[in-house]
Design goal:
The chain is of the alpha+beta class and 253 residues long. Helix content is 17%, strand content 51%.
Length: 253
């Protein structure tokens, strides 16, 4: 026979449910208080029409390339691959407020880029061409003019996440486009101008005097920057586009 539940048991169960509710309720009310009551540091910063800043960052860059479809090249090469290589970025920021959620940002700057290309030669070709390059590093110094739209999420105290999307024009001051390959050394010549689009995510932190942000962004090249050349190092791939990963830190005031 089942024993009937005592009133005391029901009272303890009610107290447990009520206690649990009292513990969970502040967790739901805290965000509301943070959003609507406490603005934290620099409470009016995002209401400014225009502000400026500086951005410094670390880059990892490579080429997006496709192995050539030429049968004569494929007889000497097994494949060609581009690997990420480190670089450095610095820019100034001009930020224009478009509304409660969107900003328009201009970030002119300079990016030191390095890209690595590796060649996998057929063994028979290496036997007769012992000086064939196994890899090649291509360095560039880009003057960049990016224009981006920043979508800001709701602020939580001194923290606010955001997304970015935009396009940029880059000019390679270190381009070897006008140099002639007059030696046996591999030279990958590039067009100086490059167009890219970018997608990123970031996190704003409102400090006492400045707004600090950490941002992750990918840049994808839109145009082929390869300069045609009879050299086998250039003919080994069809098309050459840039790809850069950027980890940056910004300070705005």
């Amino acid at each position: 026979m089942l024993a009937a539940s005592s009133p005391r048991h029901h009272r303890h169960a009610y107290i447990s449910r009520r206690g649990l509710l009292c513990m969970l309720l502040p967790l739901f009310l805290l965000p509301c208080r943070t959003l609507h009551g406490q603005t934290g540091n620099l409470g009016q910063f995002d209401r400014h029409l225009l502000h400026y800043g500086i951005q410094v960052g670390y880059t990892q860059s490579k080429f997006d390339l496709g192995f050539t479809q030429s049968d004569s090249i494929r007889q000497t090469l097994q494949g060609v691959t581009s690997y990420y290589a480190p670089g450095f970025h610095i820019a100034v920021i001009g930020d224009l407020r478009l509304g409660s959620w969107f900003n328009l940002r201009l970030l002119p700057g300079v990016t030191l880029v390095s890209r690595s290309v590796a060649y996998s030669w057929e063994q028979g070709y290496l036997a007769t061409h012992r000086l064939a390059e196994q890899s090649r590093t291509v360095e560039s110094v880009y003057g960049d003019i990016p224009l981006e739209v920043k979508f800001r999420a709701m602020r939580w105290g001194d923290f606010r996440p955001y997304l970015t999307a935009g396009a940029s024009y880059g000019f390679d001051f270190a381009s070897l486009r006008k140099n002639r390959n007059q030696t046996d050394q591999a030279i990958i010549r590039l067009e100086p101008s490059d167009l890219r689009y970018s997608l990123g995510v970031g996190f704003d932190f409102f400090l006492h005097y400045v707004k600090f942000a950490i941002e992750l962004k990918m840049n994808f090249g839109l145009v082929d920057i390869k300069v045609e050349d009879p050299d086998i190092y250039i003919r080994s791939f069809d098309g050459l586009r840039t790809r850069t990963f950027l980890l940056s830190f910004t300070f705005e005031g």
